[in-house]
Amino acid sequence: MWEYTDKVKDHFLKPRNVGEIENPDGMAEVGSIACGDMLKITFKLDEHKRIKDAKFKTFGCASAIAAASALTEMIKGMTIEEAAHVTNQDIAEYLGGLPDAKMHCSVLGRQALEQAIGYYKGGPVERPEEKIICECFGVTDKEIERAIRENNLHTVEDVTNYTKAGGGCGSCHTEIQTIIDTVYAGTKPPPKPKLTNIQKIRLIEETMEREIRPILRHDGGDIELIDVIENRVLVALRGNCAMCQASGQTMKLLVETKLHELVSSELTVEEVS
Amino acid sequence: MNTIYLDNNATSQVAPEVVEVMLPYFHELYGNPSSMHSFGGQVAARIREARAHIATLIGATPEEIIFTSCGTESDNAAIRSALAAVPDKRHIVTSRVEHPAIKVLGEHLAKHGFRITQLPVDGEGHLDMVAYKKSLTIDTAIVSLMWANNETGVLFPVEEAARIAHERGIIFHTDAVQAAGKIPIDMHASTIDMLSISGHKLHAPKGIGVLYVRKGTKFAPFLIGGHQERERRGGTENTPGIIGLGKAAELALHHMEKENTYVKDLRDKLERELLERIPRSHINGDRHNRLPNTTNISFEFVEGEAILLMMNELGICASSGSACTSGSLQPSHVLRAMGVPFTMAHGSIRFSLSVYNTEEEIDFVIEALPPIIENLRALSPFWDTDERTGTAHSQSRTRGPGESSPP
Fold first, then answer.
1. Half-sphere exposure (CA, 13 Å, Cβ side) for A200?
2. Taking CB atoms and an 8 Å cutoff, what residues of chain A touch B333?
3. DSSP states of A48-90
4. Are A135 and A111 contained in the same domain?
5. Mutant choice from A59, A103, A104, A175 vs B, greatest count of B C-beta within 10 A
6. Known catalytic residue: A105?
7. For position A125, what pLDDT does the model report?
8. CB atoms inside a 10 Å sphere around CB B300
9. Which whole number is the average pLDDT over B173-193?
10. How confident is the model at residue B403 (pLDDT cuts 50, 70, 90)?
11. Which letter, b or e, does each residue of A88-106 get, where b requires 16 or more Cβ atoms within 10 Å of its Cβ?
12. Residue A174 sits in the same domain as residue A228
């Protein structure tokens, strides 16, 4: 049994805005009966270009019906620009949350809204380079990538919960993992340019002064740069740090992490007395 | 709100008579049947009686009954034992519509050096006997085919299948978890080597099962430990469970005729009335060759979970083969194997009755369900309320890319 919030149950048992608007300004149909979810939304604007009315029809489970009902309630009164900013998270939050395995219902709502806005603006949004990754549910690489970014997804299971991709035969799991890896690889900082020795030493000193000393001084300790030989950074601990049993570990971890992050990942730190 | 329980293939209520005979074994007669003192020893005598009742229910001898913890354990023990008995053989034959206790176990073993054939079924859920005969090889260690399908109630010709396996010297196991207690089973007249039973499907409690092992069949224990169950299943006996199952077996035998008349009539009435009152509804599976208590009906253009939750509001309990209730994102593997179209698979509801259901309950469901389906169809983009008919964009069969026949 799914753990639905009272709000989900309410919108499922008493769905708002069921139906279709005649001559709508925006409309969209997403999903398919094969996938087990299908949503059709229509909306009409008033003279101030605000969404005056929105209606839906859904084939799907309780949370799909609730998400569609919630979506139509949410966008009423919004301008097109405002509606374009509604995310699947907003829909889920409006309902007080959805079970993980049901998040795809909120994604379906966002997709429908987006396409309906595209219809209003004149034809569907062009997506030239999309590739179907999940054959079972017809999910493309762009949709997967977007769900990963917007919902901070890290595992194939997460992706399946949010997009259904990978929920069928499972043969696309490797490809989904590759997309996840690519998305997060993109967030890592670009490789740093090669430093001269002078630049390197200056950067190490700056980093120690700015990032490391304040932390050590907080505990009554200090650190001194003794020498830099190739990628070996020789340092000496002063004050409380010099007496501290755990200092070797602490220092190595702290100093190395900071230097790797801000100077070069090739540096190793050694303590000398 | 009264509960109308039509989900007996999921689990069943423990019969009041069963509860009654079990109770003393928790607090008063709690002795260990293996003990030397008579306080424990008297319990061993009661276990012997319970074993005899189970044996009677399925036409076996008491020595052929091994008590286990559940149907899944019985299935695991049977398959593992057969594989251990013929260690040079690495092939397992089963079907695509088995309960996960067999299906997933087979898929697990396939990752550990065994070869598995999952036999196809036709649109009515019948086993493909031609494919079955072809699948058997000199390398086949065991065939495991369910007696009755838990989702559709469709019966497999297990006796014939067992004979075919034996002609080739292959061990035959059947998962009879849904069949036991609902239809007559006579192991004396049968050639089936091993058979699994689960207590909670026949009004005994959860946590007790049986594996029948024909006399003379090589058996390697699954749970290794003490000398219980004649060294075929280690672990102190679940005394209350065994006593309860004994009573449940006695009752099942007593109710067998009622199951196949009274329960069947209620099921048939429910089915007939729903099909008549709800357009675009269909039965899944062979309606003539199935359990008397089960019906699996698809209501096109609506989704099963939504139907279940609407029924839940009225206290009606049933199951669905829709994607949203299957624990995966695809509809039930049974309906997919049968090639049931998506429009129907997602809207499938299984009603499974028991002798405890009344005609009033069935009448209530017959009145309650049509408006539920109508209301949900009013929400469905595939349904035309004025025309009272629907159109689906995808009429494709449910055999998707993940459903190609295994090698």
1. 18
2. none
3. TSBEEEEEEEEES-HHHHHHHHHHHHHHTT-BHHHHHT--HHH
4. no
5. A59
6. yes
7. 57
8. 25
9. 98
10. very low
11. bebbbebbebbeebbbbbb
12. no
Task: Measure Cα distances from A254 to A179, A251, A257, A272 in Å.
Answer: 32, 5, 5, 16
Contacts of A178 (CB under 8 A, 6+ apart): none
Whether A59 sits inside 8 A of B402 (CB atoms) is no
What are φ and ψ of residue B387, in 5° steps?
-85, -15
- Dihedral of the alpha carbons of B231, B233, B237, B240, in degrees to the nearest 10: -140
Quote the number of domains for chain A.
Answer: 3
Q: How far apart are CA B58 and CA B37, in angstroms?
A: 33
User: What would the DSSP string read from start to end of A111-164?
Assistant: HHHHHHHHHHTTSPPP-TT--EEETTTTEEHHHHHHHHHHHT--SHHHHHHHH-
Nearest to A170 by CA among B402, B339, B337: B402
Q: How far is B262 from chain A (nearest CA, A)?
A: 31
Contacts of A55 in chain B (CB under 8 A): none
User: By the 8 A CB rule, do B214 and B194 touch?
Assistant: yes
Q: Amino acid letter at A162?
A: Y
Torsion angle (degrees, nearest 10) of CA A5, A136, B120, B350: 20
Q: Which two tokens mark B264?
A: 């069947």
Name the class of domain B16-252: alpha beta
> What tens digit of pLDDT does each residue of B245-285 get?
999 999 999 999 999 999 999 999 999 999 999 999 999 99
Chosen from B310, B324, B398 to mutate, greatest number of chain A CBs within 10 A: B324
Find out whether B294 and B9 touch, Cβ atoms under 8 Å: yes
Neighbours of A145 (CB within 10 A): 19
Residue A70: CATH number of its domain: 3.90.1010.10
Mean pLDDT along residues B181-209: 98
Residue B342: list chain A partners with CB under 8 A: 33-34, 36
Residue A40: domain span: 1-125
Specify the amino acid at residue A172.
C
B324 touches chain A (CB under 8 A): yes
Helices (H) and strands (E) in chain B, counts: 14, 15
CATH number at residue A166: 1.10.10.1100
Q: What percent of chain B has pLDDT over 70?
A: 94
Which of B11, B308, B309, B329 to mutate against chain A (most A CBs within 10 Å)?
Answer: B329
Query: CA nearest A56 in B: which residue?
Result: B379
SS3 of A179, please?
Answer: helix
Share of chain B above pLDDT 90, in %: 89
Same domain, A144 and A205: no
Enumerate residues 6+ apart whose C-beta is below 8 A from B128: B119, B120, B121, B122
pLDDT of A128-155, one tens digit each? 578 888 888 888 898 899 899 888 899 9
- The whole-angstrom distance between A47's CA and the closest CA on chain B is 29
Sign of CA dihedral B181, B187, B189, B192: positive
> Is residue A162 less than 8 Å (CB to CB) from chain B?
no
Is residue A103 within 8 angstroms of chain B, CB to CB? no
**pTM greater than 0.90 (yes/no):** no
Q: Say whether residue A271 is in contact with chain B using an 8 A CB cutoff.
A: no
Task: Write the class of the CATH domain B4-8+256-403.
Answer: alpha beta
In chain B, domain spans? 4-8+256-403, 16-252
List, in sequence order, every residue forming a beta bridge with A262; answer none if it has no partner: none
Residue A132 touches partner B, C-beta closer than 8 Å? no
State yes or no: is A241 an active-site residue: no
Nearest CB partner across the interface for A33, out of B329, B382, B400: B382
